[in-house]
Each structure stands twice: as C-alpha cells, then as structure tokens.
Design goal:
Shape: globular
Structural class: alpha/beta
Radius of gyration: 22 Å
Order of helices and strands: HHEEEHEHHHEHEEEHEEEHEEHEHEH
Bound molecules: glyoxylic acid, manganese (II) ion
Number of helices: 12
Number of strands: 15
Helix content: 25-40%
C-alpha cells in the first residue's frame, strides 16, 4: 500500500495556488479568505474521491474513510503565517488525504476509521491550536477572551467562517473514540538536512509562551522635545527587544525568544511614539526553564519601561507546555522507516504542532521530513518531493502498525502490512 506520489504532487501544487505569493510561498492567515478557499478545496477534493466529509463546530475540516471502531486521525493545517511557505501544514493535510486514498484504492479493511483533518488556526494568527485543542477538549474560555491576534480579529474570523464562539467547545471528541493521531510535517529546522537523514522521528514538542506587551509613554513633537524630556514608548520596546536577545543567548542556551511584531503609535516620522505594542514569545523543551525565562524576560521588559518613564502592561496570550509524543508510536515510525530502507533519526520539535494538543488525549506521533537549509515560516521554504513521498509512505506504514489492536502494554505494535 503506497501513496501515489505523482497524484499527491498534483494536489499539493493545486493547493499551493490558493493564496500564492509572488515570492513562491502562500499567504493564508487563519480564517481569512485564502485559508477558507484552501479548506473548501480540501473538502471538494475528498468528496470527489468518494470520501465522506465533515466540518465540526470548531471548523476542523475532515475527510473520512469510515469503518466500525475507533478513529485514527491523520492531519495538520492549511492556514499559514503571513507570507509563509507552501509546505508548513499543507504537506501533512495532503499526505493524510492521500493515505486515505491509498487505503481506499487497496480495498483493505482496517479495524479503524481513518480521518484526515485540517485543523483550524494552528499557526496562532488568532488563538493558536484552536481546532486541535477544541477537538482534544483542552480549549478554555480564557484563551478565547485574550487571543494572540486580538479579540476583534478573532471574532471577525469566526463570523467569516460561520463559526460561533460558544459552540467551539462542542467539537470535543470522546478520547475513547480515538485510536491515535499521526502528523507528517516538514522539520522546519536544519537537523535532518545537515545529517543527510531522510526521516525524523519526533520525540516531543517544545513548550511556548506568548505575551502581548504594551508600553505607554507620551506622544510628543520629534523636533522640539529634548532627548532628556521624552517618554518614548518605541525606544522602551526596542531596548527590551535587544535585552531579551542578550538574556537568552547569555543565560538560557537551548531556548529561543522572539519579538516578532512591534507596532508604534501614532506611527509617524515626526512624532515621538506615545505607545508601542510588542508580541513576545519564547520556547523551551523544559517547563522549569520556561518559568525562569518568563521571569527574566518580564523583569527586563519592566526595566526597559521604567528606565524611560514608560508604563508597561503585560497580557498572557498563549501557554503551551512541552509535550512528549507517544513512545510506542515513535517505535512504529522508526520500524516503518527501517522496513522502507529509509534513514531516520530521533529529534524533538522546536516548532509547535497540532500533535501537541492531541497528545493529551490519544497516542500521538509525528514524522518529519527534511527542510532545505532548515528554512520555514518564509516563502523560500522547501522540501524535496521525494522526501515528502517518503514521509507519506512511512506515515501510511506506521498507521497500519497503529491501526491493529494494541498489545496489552498499550504500546503500538510494530507489525506492518
Ligand atoms: C507554528 O508553526 C509555530 O511553531 O509557531
Ligand atoms: Mn505547521
Ligand atoms: Mn507554522
């Protein structure tokens, strides 16, 4: 049983046309028009192939190959970061669809239903892991009240896609109905490419926290206000950005912190900025280290503001714990790679994924394929198509391993079709 690599490429390319950018990537922020068009493409393609389809209360789009028994979920996301690449998320959704098509074409009867899912808002343009956490039952009302992309953008996205905030929670699935979750994804970093290895077995996913910071100073005339009489909110935000970088490099090796968005108000050449908003996020594989990093970074933000007579407001807008993936599924993925003659190595993911939401309620695993030059979240993101097909073949092999009844230990049996 193999996916049809050529047919999968046709679908992948057709999907990449939706929201395509001149730079060769895609721009499909969550629940924007291009994202909604990509989702429609996915369901239409599945329906045309004779698969059942469904959209749940959180907007997750699914293609289903029904069977009695539990459901094995496969998937990823069709939204992108602003001006992103065409592989992040899309590869996993198209591969999941083609795994279903391969099983359908083979006529094999699996003892589980297969469901290829495109999860809502993985990237956090609005909330982050919105669809997968709703499905897992871990989405909270607090997260919706302080979304990363702001309340207005969140509500506009829901309205545009016909979703109701109060209904999102009813997308929760009873974990007893789930057999597991598998996600194919590009690595988005340099490990596999540098090692010349074809397949990554993902052991776990780094934790991440996000904060919306608001520096409030005083707007003033840029020509007449003496340098020592300013309360420059932009300068406070900029000096915090430099300090944050120094703290991580000096004191938290292995962690990352990013201020990926700074906006100044009113935003004019000749006005000292009266306010600055900054989006801060940081990540680590270790929960205690995340606590320590949070304290150090927020202290630096307070110092940057205080030193310039600027007020600081801090709002938490995202909190994701470091998440180990299922050891038995890792074994099954590694065994499948060996059977297919593909080289593999075990690594953790620095990027966030829907798998981390699913891991709390079912046995979740991820397959990585190499990213050219380790580049992602940029239009130049690329993975050799042969690697994509290898990953999909391996995903379908390891799903067959996961689909047979679990042995008493609860570990995924490494037997393969
Ligand atoms: C998603 O790609 C993330 O890690 O932010
Ligand atoms: Mn992704
Ligand atoms: Mn991403």
């Amino acid at each position: 049983m193999r996916v049809d690599g050529e047919r999968m490429l046709e679908d992948f390319d057709a999907l990449a046309e939706i929201g395509a950018t001149a730079a060769g990537g895609v721009d499909r922020p969550s629940l924007g028009d291009a994202h909604l068009a990509a989702r429609r493409w996915f369901l239409d393609r599945a329906a045309a192939a004779g698969l059942a389809t469904r959209i749940d209360a959180a907007g997750n789009h699914s293609a289903i190959l029904p069977a009695d028994g539990q459901t094995l979920l496969l998937g990823s996301h069709l939204d992108s970061v602003p001006n992103g690449g065409r592989y992040d998320g899309a590869l996993g959704v198209v591969a999941a669809l083609h795994v279903l098509l391969a099983v359908q074409a083979s006529g094999a009867e699996l003892p589980v239903a297969l469901e290829a899912v495109d999860f809502t808002d993985e990237e956090g343009t609005l909330v982050g892991l919105l669809g997968s956490e709703a499905l897992a039952g871990t989405l909270t009302a607090e997260r919706l009240h302080a979304p990363r992309g702001g309340r207005d953008a969140f509500l506009a996205g829901l309205a545009r896609s016909g979703l109701a905030e109060e209904s999102l929670f009813s997308a929760r699935r009873d974990p007893a109905t789930l057999r597991g979750y598998l996600e194919l994804h590009i690595e988005q970093g340099p490990v596999l490419a540098r090692a010349g290895v074809q397949i990554g077995v993902v052991t776990g996913i780094a934790g991440a926290r996000s904060f919306a910071l608001r520096f409030d100073g005083s707007a003033a005339h840029a020509g007449t206000t003496p340098m020592d009489a300013r309360r420059d909110a932009g300068l406070a935000a900029a000096s915090f950005a430099v300090a944050a970088n120094e703290i991580v490099v000096r004191e938290f090796p292995g962690c990352v912190a990013t201020i990926g968005d700074i906006r100044l108000q009113p935003g004019a050449y000749n006005v000292v900025p009266g306010a600055a908003s900054a989006g801060l996020e940081f990540r680590s594989t270790d929960a205690d280290e995340l606590d320590a990093l949070e304290s150090a970074l927020l202290a630096a933000a307070r110092a940057a503001a205080g030193g310039r007579g600027v007020e600081l407001e801090v709002e938490p807008v995202g909190h994701w714990e470091p998440t180990p993936l299922d050891a038995g599924v890792c074994d099954a993925i590694a065994a499948a790679a060996a059977e297919l003659g593909l080289s593999s190595l075990w690594l953790h993911s620095g990027a966030g994924h829907d798998a981390q939401a699913l891991a709390g309620v079912t046995r979740a695993g991820m397959v990585f394929v190499p990213s050219v030059a380790g580049l992602s979240h940029a239009p130049g993101e690329s993975t050799a198509w042969e690697d994509c097909v290898n990953g999909s073949a391996k995903a379908s092999r390891s799903l067959a391993a996961c689909a047979i009844p679990a042995p008493p230990s609860g570990r995924c049996a490494p037997a393969l079709v």
